[in-house]
Amino acid sequence: MPSIAHLIHAYGLLVVAGTIGLEGIGFPVPGETALIVALVISGTKHELNIVAVIVTVAAIAATVVHAVPVMTLTQWLRSKNHG
């Protein structure tokens, strides 16, 4: 099984965005590990742009932070209608 570092080398920011996004919605994937590895790669080997890594993480975080209250409100409204 390939490691997170290998996947980031092969696929770049798609792996970082995917793992952080999946972890944010509840899947048990190593989102923080992918972020740390991507930052180390961008800082040492310059294969990734550090600004792109930070912007990707901020975009995913904003999406997840927005989605959680919407899902909670939706569940609450459904329980009120069917309760």
Structure commentary:
With 83 residues, the protein is mainly alpha-helical. It has one domain (4-82). Helices cover 81% and strands 0% of the residues. The chain contains four helices and no strands. α2 (13-24) runs antiparallel to α3. The radius of gyration is 16 Å and the shape is elongated.
Biggest sheet descriptor:
none
The secondary-structure class comes to: mainly alpha
Share of helix among residues? Answer: over 70%
Number of strands: 0
Number of domains: 1
Provide the gyration radius in Å. Answer: 16 Å
Q: What's the overall average pLDDT, rounded? A: 83
Strand residues, percent: under 5%
Order of helices and strands: HHHH
Unreliable residue stretches = none
N-to-C terminal Cα separation, in Å?
46 Å
**Individual helix count:** 4
How would you describe the oligomerization state of the chains in this entry? single chain
Shape: elongated
Task: Write a brief caption for the model.
The chain has helices at 4-11, 13-24, 31-44, 50-82.
Summary keywords:
83 residues, mainly alpha, elongated
